[in-house]
Design brief:
Elements lengths: L12 E6 L10 H10 L4 E4 L8 H11 L2 E11 L4 E7 L6 H26 L7 H8 L6 H10 L6 H9 L14 H10 L3 E4 L2 H4 L2 H9 L4 E5 L5 H14 L2 E4 L18 E2 L1 H10 L2
Parallel strand pairs: 1-2, 2-3, 5-6, 6-7
Antiparallel strand pairs: 1-8, 3-4, 4-5
The structure holds adenosine monophosphate (AMP), zinc ion and fe (iii) ion (2 copies).
């Protein structure tokens, strides 16, 4: 189902999982759309973490460039002990409840980033909050921005060292995020007219949790993802067939932070989009 894309002609492939600089990706939405066009994708979805603020202008730009744009978001939901990521597709980005949630969440993220910066002081790491905010720009502020500033200011040699020693899950300066429950996240997306899909379950979700998600209304599973093995892809496909769910996939591209531009390099056929539309009756 997935095949490597470079600069070949791929008129029927889509990438449904891409991050922009509105969350922790390196590129603007325009740059992402330009890349997607260069790689001849038929459709893309930009799925920023808890941010939908640039979807309107990205949609407009996609229209100009002649590539189909599917509204997307990646919502962090609560499970113990860490995160679970839910992808929303085809929702109305002008939905008031969704906008209120995103605004509330971003403010909680801001408070959390300040707490992390405060904790880092105990380890002799003094960061300017302005610098971190500048990195985050207008989107969701998060640990990647803090890790970048720690690296640039010479407190760690690499972005990864910042996570491994200080701010990674369970590390001394880790502060958990405010999160809604998976059922609330699914309802939020559904009420805004969208479909809710579990992102990369193979990285952080047990099968038991997955069954609970299906019980509360999960509609699809992301199978194609850079961190999924072929065995995991096959395993999730069996669950999809058994429970009559949708299948999605994408590159989870964060820009060049992960060594090269992943856009389109993990992809699914356009029939995936057609099935989603049929599901929604659009
Ligand atoms: P946040 O939403 O602020 O908790 O940041 C989560 C993001 O941080 C993830 O999407 C990853 O991009 C990055 N991240 C989390 N843990 C690590 C880690 N151990 N190493 C590198 N990046 C990480
Ligand atoms: Zn991310
Ligand atoms: Fe994710
Ligand atoms: Fe992602």
């Amino acid at each position: 189902m997935y095949r490597k894309l470079f600069h070949t002609h791929n008129p029927n492939r889509v990438d449904l999982h891409i991050h922009s600089n509105r969350s922790d990706g390196a590129f603007t939405c325009k740059e992402i759309i330009d890349y997607a066009c260069k790689r001849d994708l038929k459709a893309i979805s930009i799925t920023d973490h808890d941010d939908i603020s640039d979807l309107k202008s990205a949609e407009r730009y996609s229209k100009q460039k002649g590539i189909e744009f599917i509204t997307g978001v990646e919502i962090s939901a609560r499970t113990k002990p860490f995160d679970l990521h839910l992808l929303g597709y085809f929702f109305d980005y002008a939905n008031k409840h969704l906008i209120d949630y995103v605004n509330y969440f971003q403010n909680e993220r801001l408070k959390r980033a300040k707490k992390i910066v405060q904790l880092l002081k105990n380890y002799g790491i003094r960061l300017s909050f302005d610098l971190i905010q500048k990195k985050a720009g207008q989107g969701s502020i998060g640990r990647p921005h803090i890790a970048d500033v720690m690296t640039e200011e010479g407190y760690v040699y690499t972005y990864y060292e910042a996570f491994n020693k200080y701010i990674g899950d369970g590390c001394p300066c880790f502060v958990p995020k405010y999160k809604i429950s998976p059922a609330e996240a699914i309802a939020l997306i559904n009420n805004a007219g969208g479909i809710c899909v579990i992102a990369h379950p193979g990285t952080d979700v047990t099968d038991e949790e997955l069954m609970n998600l299906i019980k509360v209304g999960l509609e699809g599973i992301e199978t194609i993802h850079p961190r999924h093995t072929q065995e995991q892809v096959n395993h999730y496909r069996e669950i999809i067939v058994k429970h009559g769910l949708l299948e999605t996939g994408g590159s989870d591209c964060h820009g060049n932070r992960k060594s090269h531009v992943m856009i389109g390099q993990f992809n699914v056929p356009y029939s995936v989009v057609e099935k989603m539309k049929a599901w929604l009756g659009i």
